[in-house]
From TrEMBL:
UniProt feature, compositional bias: Low complexity: 1-17
Domain of life the protein comes from: Bacteria
Species classification: Bacteria, Bacillati, Actinomycetota, Actinomycetes, Kitasatosporales
Any Pfam family matching the protein: PaaA_PaaC
Compositionally skewed regions (Basic residues) per UniProt: 324-334
Region (Disordered) residue spans: 1-27, 321-344
UniProt protein name: 1,2-phenylacetyl-CoA epoxidase subunit A
InterPro entries: Aromatic_CoA_ox/epox (IPR052703), Ferritin-like (IPR012347), Ferritin-like_SF (IPR009078), PaaA (IPR011881), PaaA_PaaC (IPR007814)
Length: 344
């Protein structure tokens, strides 16, 4: 545990709760020192309310992205071209559900409940990644999502393994390992199509053409329009700016596209010798903000489906709660009824 921890732990307030804190300055200094020294902030440690609120915002958006992200790919499970591809895709979609669970659990350590966060998602008060508001039109989209979307997610999330907040950083370690498998399955799928018949090659190229620009938008608005980056980087929640990570992703993708035998749909993409990186064309930020406002091709469909899945899963949650209560009663000697409510 951190050397500054003793100053930081006692009496952490619930998320968002106002708190009288006679020792506030000392705690703030200890928090700042811990962050500066690259120590981890843990749930019981004191932290500024704004730090807590930023983490809840980011982790919730991330968790929502994982579970909404199951939809575009699940669309292809019944139409996978072979048993092998079907098994891989099912495992991947299931992994995304797991990522959502780790992330909701990480958010809960900050004093919010999963129900509260899901309610905010369902009522449109919290965002999820723009990328999942685009349709999956062909089987090749499964490959393009794996290669580009999961590739972008890894580029963004590897630095989050060093996030100053312990539970989020630890969740990211496992998520990144699994995302790495997802990225490789997408690459391998696209390679098979690219080397297949002319029709298969064309299908792979069309998918890359449609997913390339939305993948670049996943990194968020440009730095000069990124409202939260400066503060999040000062707190070491984010380690790099949106533009830095976007650039890194472009530089990684260019040689991979060449190996795939596919082109990236950007006539302005070229190596810049002087800066040692690729220049690329202008991103359509109007489209990005429009998708964030709910006007993307699939926003409505994704949220409707999510709300329906939540409602239809109510009986599962009730059954799981009843089972957990029954199991707990076995150990405590207390008896509960079928709803998990204690009986006299
Ligand atoms: N989609 C939707 N909203 C986005 C966005 C995107 N691609 N990029 C930015 N935004 C939102 C921000 O949430 C913020 O909105 P808010 O103030 O209402 O919360 C606003 O746009 C301004 O953006 P900022 O750059 O100021 O926001 P951040 O500093 O939070 O940076 C981020 C945005 C880079 C996405 C950062 O939050 C982050 O790194 N998040 C963790 C990673 C994540 O959420 N990934 C989701 C990708 S999908 C995924 O992981 C699933 C996998 O299976 C592929």
């Amino acid at each position: 545990m951190a050397t500054a921890a003793a100053h930081r732990t006692a009496g952490a307030p619930a998320y968002g709760a106002p708190h009288a804190d006679p020792d506030g300055d000392a705690r703030q200094r200890a928090f700042d020192a811990a962050v500066a020294a690259d120590e981890r902030v843990e749930p019981r440690d004191w932290m500024p309310d704004a730090y807590r609120a930023t983490l809840v915002r980011q982790i919730a958006q991330h968790a929502h992205s994982e579970i909404i992200g199951m939809q575009p790919e699940a669309n292809w499970i019944t139409r996978a071209p072979s048993l092998r591809r079907k098994a891989i895709l099912m495992a991947k979609v299931q992994d995304e559900a797991g990522h959502g669970l780790y992330l909701y659990s990480a958010a809960e350590t900050l004093g919010v409940s999963r129900d509260e966060l899901l309610d905010k998602l369902h009522s449109g008060r919290q965002k999820y990644s723009s990328i999942f508001n685009y349709p999956t039109l062909t089987w090749a989209d499964v490959g393009a999502i794996g290669w580009l979307v999961d590739g972008a997610a890894i580029t963004n999330q590897v630095p989050l393994c060093r996030c100053s907040y312990g539970p989020y950083a630890r969740a990211m370690v496992r998520v990144c390992k699994e995302e790495s498998f997802h990225q490789r399955q997408g690459y391998e799928l696209l390679l098979a199509l690219s080397r297949g018949t002319p029709e298969q090659h064309a299908m792979a190229q069309d998918a890359v053409d449609r997913w390339w620009w939305p993948s670049l938008m996943m990194f968020g608005p440009p730095d000069d329009a990124s409202q939260h980056s400066a503060q999040s980087m000062a707190w070491k929640i984010k380690r790099h700016s949106n533009d830095e990570l976007r650039q890194r992703f472009v530089d990684i993708c260019v040689p991979q596209a060449e190996s795939l035998g596919l082109t990236l749909p950007d006539p302005d993409l070229k190596w810049n010798e002087e800066h040692g990186r690729h220049d690329f064309g202008a991103i359509d930020w109007t489209e990005f903000w429009d998708v964030l406002k709910g006007n993307g091709p699939c926003n409505e469909q994704r949220l409707t489906q999510r709300r329906r899945a939540h409602d239809e899963g109510a009986w599962v949650r009730e059954a799981a709660a009843a089972h957990a209560a029954k199991h707990a009663a076995k150990h405590t000697g207390k008896h509960t009824g079928p709803t998990g409510v204690e009986q006299a």
